[in-house]
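Data availability (excerpt). The following record was deposited with the supplementary files.
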Amino acid sequence: MNAANPDFTGVTATPERLKFDEAALARYMEAHVEGFKGPLTVEKFKGGQSNPTYLLTTPARRYVLRRKPPGKLLPSAHAVEREYRVMSALGPLGFPVPRTFANCEDDSVIGTAFFIMDFVDGRIFWDASLPAVAPEGRRALFMELVDVMAALHTTDYRKAGLEDFGKPGNYFARQIDRWGKQYAAARTADIPAMDRLIEWLPANIPADDATSIVHGDFRFDNVIFDKTAPKARAVLDWELSTLGHPLADFTYFLMVWHFPPTIRGGLAGLDLKALGIPSLDEAAQRYCEKTGRQSLADFDYCLAYNMFRLASIAQGVYARALAGNASSPEGIKMGESVPPLAAMAWSYAEKAGAR
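Predicted structure:
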C-alpha cells in the first residue's frame, strides 16, 4: 500500500467501540468459509469512513471483513449486502474485484451484518498526483482507471444477474431525492448553497437517460493496483453501487481534475504535463473511445450533481462522528469540507444555467 498517508494506510488495533466477538466470527467462518482454518487474528484497517473494515489473518491466508457500523444508522445507508452481491456477480465475468466468501445478515454473530472477501495485496494510491510514482508511469495508471470504468459501464447488467440491482432510468431524480433526504437527516448547520442545489438540481435533469452498473465512489484510493504493473487488481468499496447513469459515475471520477490538492488530493492548478498526468480532455476522450459515446453531454450539470452528492455524504460522515458512530476519527474533519463542496457544486450549476 502507498505509505504517503499514514492516517489511512495499514491496520491498527480495533478501537473498543468497534470490537466484536472474534471467537463467534471464527466459528461462523469454520461453518461458512470453505478452507478456513484458525487461529484467527483480527485487526482494523485505518481507512474506511463508512463501513468498518478488518484484516483477518490465519496461518494459511488473509481475508477482509466489512461490516455495518454499530449504532443508529441513516435509512438505506451502509448496504454491505449490496457490496457483496455486486462483487460476487462481477468477479465471474472477469471484472477486477476481490473473491467473495460469505455474507452474513444475522446481527447475532458479531453485532451487525457483514461479509467476508479475499485480501488482495498491491498498491493503493491516496493522492491522485501519484507522488510515489515516477512521472513516466503515471499516465498508464490513470488510463487504466478510465478503462476499468468503461468496462464496468459496458458490462451487461442482465448477463451479470443484476437486473433488479436498481431501477433502470430516472437515476438523477432518484439520487437527488435520496441525497437531499440524507443531507436533511444529517444536517447540523445552514448551508444556503445546499438548499439552492436541492431546489435546482431536480428541476434541470438532463434528457439522456442511459443505464449501466455504476460504482458510485470510483477513485484512486478505492482501487488496488498490481505492485509493479499499471493494472487494476481489485475495485473496492461498492457500498453506493446500483443501476444508474454511467456519466454520473464517470464525472464523479473526473472531479479530481477540478478539486485543488487540499480536497481529496485534487489536481487543479498542477502542471499535469510535467507530472505525466493526462488532461481531463484526454481522459474523457479515452472513455468515449472505450464506450462508443460521442461526447460527455451535460458535463457541468453532472459535476454540480456529484459535488452536491459528495457534500451530502460528507455531512453524513460528520454527523455520525458527532454521534460517536464514525468508523474513523477522521470523520469529524469531514464537516469542514461540506460548505466548500456545496459552493463548488453551485458554481457548476451556474455554468449549467442556474440563476
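Summary of structural features: The chain has a mean pLDDT of 91.
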